[in-house]
Amino acid sequence: MSFPQISKILNVAVIGCGEIAQIAHIPNLIVASDMFKITALCDISIQSLELCSKRFSIPNTFTSVTDLLASPITIDLVFILTADQFHAEHIIQCANAGKHIMIEKPMAQTLKEYDLVEEARLKNNVIIFVGYMRRFSLALNRLKDEIKGKEIKYVKIRDIIGNNKYFTSQSGQYQKYFKDHPNESTKELNKRIKLNLIENLGIEEKVESDNNRNIHSWSLLHSLSSHDLSLMRDILGMPEKCLFSTRSNDFQNKSWWWNVLFDYKSFKCYYEMGIDEVAYFDAHIEIFTNDSRLKIQYDTPYVKGLPIKFTIQKQLSNGDFSEQIIRPTYVDPYTIELPLLYDSIVNGKDYETKPLDAKNDTILAKMIMEALVK
């Protein structure tokens, strides 16, 4: 793990003071005080603002992005941690104000939004850094090195985890949740959710329950699945097509369970995803070659210090079976991404997670929904 040359401290505004801000981003930014200083907070929830302002000693608070950007407060970089459906709008606002951006995934909701964000990035010459934190794990680099020159035969990706509440409640950050959101914002959010579904899938749902089910499916594919789809692309590239996908039929469980098969030129990639009521985090990617099995096992990002492990299983030339477990670091990916973000802004270092890279996850989500079979 290398650190960039530190030449200045970036002034940061955090937009969105909910769960991920309280548990990960604000504490990490405060600890990385040689690179970052939080100068302002913004949220539509007055209670969230008051909590974070008091807890983290950040006095400048705003309830609208427009007011934040119009203020005389010095801002070099904005962390956008708002509801997914407002991401693209807030990114473009901040980019047009000349601010660099770290955006939580999913970066946008529709293909058009990705193109508009990319247009804003180029026009304003700003960094738009998508926070695919699993891609910043050092174990992933070890895996990439290990598969070089090997012929891949099969890939299995699994993300079956307990509900986030089991892990966030043990994060040790004493986060709080508030619901004092303006009615207008809630109405606008629900409106955008439905309009995005129609734009992405090209269907006008007539049965409300079916509509809700597809809305939930799209949300899940864009949230939990985006971790896996982004990892898959990073390691393997884009698949030729999605051969089939299925989801659970129990509407009461909101289609938590998915099975998907992707077709690459010389191998298949099987993906399974689900959320249950067991406090266990089973997220891994496993690659099978002729002579080895390579596996990265991720743990919950909400509890700091849990290791990401890379396991190599192979048959030795003398016939022995060998299993090697590599743990590159205990540093969590949320922390690892901060020097990379800093380096891209201050030192001009290139980075992978740009808007058009992120656009591929929505393309894959569309492929999965279009390949649904009963």
From TrEMBL:
Pfam family, one: GFO_IDH_MocA
One GO MF term: nucleotide binding
GO cellular component, one term: cytoplasm
GO BP term (any one): NADPH regeneration
Domain of life (superkingdom): Eukaryota
Gfo/Idh/MocA-like oxidoreductase N-terminal domain location: 10-132
Protein name: Myo-inositol 2-dehydrogenase
Record organism: Kwoniella pini CBS 10737
Source organism phylogeny: Eukaryota, Fungi, Dikarya, Basidiomycota, Agaricomycotina
